[in-house]
Amino acid sequence: MAWKANSQRKPLLLMGARQIGKTTVLKSFGYNEYSTLIYINLEREKDMHSLFEGNKNPQFLLDSISLFSGHEIYPERTLIVLDEIQECRDALTSLKYFNEERPDIQLIGAGSLLGLTVANSANFPVGKVEFLDMYPLTFSEYLASRDKKLYKAYHHYLEQETIASIPEVFFNPLMALFKEYILFGGMPEVAVSFLANKDMSKAQEIQNNIIRAYEMDFVKHADKNTSVKIKQAWNVIPAQLAAENRKFIYGMIRKGARASDYENAILWLCEAGLTYQVKRLKKIGLPLKAYEDFSAFKLYTFETGILIRLAKLDPRIIARGNSLFTEFKGALAESFVCTALNKTFRNDLYYWNSKGVAEVDFILNIAKYVIPVEVKSGTITKSKSLAVYKDKYDPAIRVRISELNLKQTGDVLNIPLFYAEHVKELIEKGLNLKSFGTFK
Fold it and tell me: What's the confidence (pLDDT) of residue 344?
């Protein structure tokens, strides 16, 4: 909506992993906000590629698109969507000319592997397009469909001026639904199925099909040698995260494997939006990127339900309370927090350790502050690592994300796991950063 309202808008590229709902959102937006939606899927409509391969004059392309769709194109009243635009690189290139010569035309390109195309296209229209990243459903979005009363309570206590605990009458059912969410709530099709009939096996089957589609992309969009390595790296993620030290070890893929063998495969997974990389810091200082250690990182899947299926974890574990997390040594909790933080901090997520003595799961930069964040999967939250970090760097605030209630005690802020998507605003509140304005 903000893009539509901006008179200086450029063609928009909607980025995100496959099957998170990009097409559904775009069609809904087009039908609700415009007189006419012209939707073209460039993966299915291969013949359309020839239009873009030749004359890239915007008026010629608009005339051709109008003839193909059977609709007149009116500036400000027509939305053109080029879905799976990564399948036609000439269509991507044409966005430059639309921006320069026909800025009145509202045009959106989308694609599940668009990140790979952007990274590897020499003719990409740099500076001529805008980007919008789309992610799986958040817990609050899932909650809006699952329980409207709890959804209101969730936001009511989040929006208080000061940090205050949530009454147990709301906190306990929120935590129960959160555990349901991390199993089946992230991927729209899975969530719709589970919300409709609460059938775990059906939801699990849909997750399996999604994973199968991702693995088919490995073969379709990478050469044979690279696709094998992509699948090997993808399949070993649960084992990497189950280890006590979640640092990615190439030797776990195969004996003797080196970084040079698999770094392109891991880059592919990250650019496809299927994984997030969290790199280690050599030391704490600003800017954090200046102290990045390129030799050590952790690799997380972009959605926890997919991680659970990769790990072959039985979804019926949800009926066993806290064992949902302890069965997988906290990997699910940490992976979920990574996905939540990534929406705000994107590629600026790091972790820190100190010669085997302590390890802090995430290090964040908010305003002038460097914030250590520890993730705990249960209600036993004593943290040696946060204590070691405090002795060494004396942060203004330390954050623990756990199954405990929202609470601030001195310099320790405990944030419930279901509020992980709001970590930044809660830290700002804990630091009383009103004078800095809003950092959203």
Answer: 93
226: Cβ–Cβ under 8 A, 6 or more apart, which residues? Answer: 264, 265, 268
Distance CA 415, CA 401 (A): 5
CB 15 within 8 A of CB 133: yes
For the chain, the helix, strand and coil percentages under 3-state DSSP, each to the nearest 5: 50, 15, 30
CA angle, 182 then 18 then 297, to 5°: 65
Q: In the beta sheet, which residues pair with residue 277? A: 299
DSSP conformational letter for 264: H
**16 in the Ramachandran plot: left (φ > 0), alpha (ψ -120 to 50) or beta?**
left
CB 397 within 8 A of CB 371: yes
Q: Tell whether omega for the bond before 287 is within 30 degrees of 0, i.e. cis.
A: yes
- Of 186, 275, 164, the closest CA to residue 230 belongs to 275
Report domain extents, the chain.
2-133, 139-436
What pLDDT does 436 receive?
Answer: 38
The residue count of the chain comes to 440
**Per-residue pLDDT reduced to its tens digit, 97-120:** 999 999 999 999 998 888 777 766
**Residue located via tokens 């940090």:** 163
Structure-block tokens of residue 264: 């392109």
Pairing of strands 359-366, 350-353: antiparallel
pTM of the model: 0.91
Torsion of CA 432, 421, 139, 297, to 10 degrees: -150
3-class DSSP assignment, residue 240 = helix
The Cα 62–Cα 73 span in angstroms is 7
Rounded CA-CA distance 98/389 in Å is 51
Q: What percent of the chain has pLDDT over 90?
A: 81
d(CA 175, CA 195): 17
Fold of 2-133: Rossmann fold (3.40.50)
Sorting pLDDT into bands at 50, 70 and 90, what band is 317?
low
Q: How far apart are CA 144 and CA 154, in angstroms?
A: 10
Residue type, 200: M
Q: Virtual CA dihedral for 303, 306, 308, 312, nearest 10 degrees?
A: -170
